Amino acid sequence: MTARRRASERANPFAAGFAVPDKVAAAGKPVSGASLDAPEARKIKYTALLDDDTVDAFEQLTRAARRRLQRNVDKVEVMKALIMLAADDVSLRDQMIEEVSGRRETTTAE
Length: 110
Prior knowledge:
With 110 residues, this protein is mostly helical. The chain has a domain at 52-109. The protein contains four helices and no strands. The protein is elongated and about 90 Å long. The model has no long low-confidence stretch (mean pLDDT 78).
């Protein structure tokens, strides 16, 4: 027969809730994994209100990408690609600025 342990020697079932959490686990990051030090990408949500012509053009671009790549292409992928192309290509950026300038003049003239 085993001797009874005193209360101070027994495991306290309520102590688990008061344990000091691991710093990584407390930060909400995965405890196990190879990319603990990799920063998470910051994401910001934008909403665009498009007229019918712009929606049609955007849908055509998305469908063309899906046909050529033969896979599902998300509209966000198309938008990101267009933004990065305009940011990297000076002539495309200038065309975009001219288009915005022209549309703004016609919008304010109405």
